[in-house]
Amino acid sequence: MLRSTYRVLERDTWLAVLLRSLGWALAVAAWLLLLVGLTTSAHALTTVRITTVLGDVDVTLYEDTAPLTADNFLDYVAADAYADMFLHRSVPGFVVQGGGFTFVPGQGVGNVPTFAPVQNEFNVSNTRGTVAMAKLGGDPDSATSQWFFNLDDNSDNLDNQNGGFTVFGRVVGDGMDTVDAIAALPRINAGGAFTNLPYRNQIVNNTVDENNLVFVTSVTVLDVMSGDYNGNGQIEQGDLDLVLQNWGAFGSELEVGLYGHGPGQIGQGSLDAVLTSWGEATAPEFTGSAVPEPVSGSIGLVAAVLAYRRRRQR
């Protein structure tokens, strides 16, 4: 009887050990799968630098919410179609527009060569700092090469006409300082498409030339790592701090210029981007109160596993 009881207890003990081992193995496997999933889902968003004669404007493209439009813009960049292009329209408190016209000394004004129109992809509101496509009135799917910076929250207007104007990017960093400087320039009515033409320097003999136009000298694709929210080329504590400080900020409410994740919102995707790209030089310093809810899946799983282990040790 005693020997039989001992064998039952022995089997139970081995079973418990086996179950605990399987539990830990499954937990570790689930954690690894989750990390792999996060790594695949958090990808680097393309950021382009629009260099003007008044300064640089960095724009993160919304390849998730406007993939066709972002690809269309990158096609123009790859074809160097924006070479010798100038910003031809400035309406204070509304937009600064370009992408349509070039100027070459000795040749005068020309048109940016256009590709086939792109399908409208209105998904993000036209708030301050966003970049959207210009198009023909009454034809939502007519956008080609022209785009504009939103100087203010134009969502009430531009979100509700012509199928909504497709936002395909957002100005990041201090780029809006340059856009605002362009918007502050004087304007002249030069007729046609140039009724609100911004100009610099003094116009001589009533003739606008290359010394007056606001040129875009280049548009280049930058190598910005996913999760590098402070733009210093590293994924470290400063990036995590920015995410936590600005959690939930969206659109024009975002006070700190971040190379953000998705349509301008600092949230779970931003946290995942930092966690999955964390540099080897610095270890994360998480505290329970600092991580906003919902916490990232990987952190939550680790916490759950550790809590389970503490309970088993009591």
Helices and strands in order, then pairings?
Elements: H1 2-41, E1 47-52, E2 55-61, H2 67-78, E3 85-86, E4 89-91, E5 95-98, E6 101-104, E7 108-111, E8 130-133, E9 147-150, H3 155-158, E10 167-172, H4 175-183, E11 187-188, E12 197-198, E13 215-222, H5 237-245, H6 268-276, H7 297-313
Q: How would you describe the overall organization of this protein?
A:
The chain is built from seven helices and 13 strands. The two termini are 32 Å apart. The longest helix has 40 residues, at 2-41. Helix 1 (2-41) packs antiparallel against helix 7 (297-313) and helix 5 packs antiparallel against helix 6. It has an eleven-stranded antiparallel sheet with strand order 4-5-9-8-10-2-1-13-3-6-7. Helix content is 32%, strand content 18%. With 314 residues, it is of the alpha+beta class. It has two domains: 40-44 and 227-313, no CATH class; 47-222, Beta Barrel (Cyclophilin), CATH 2.40.100.
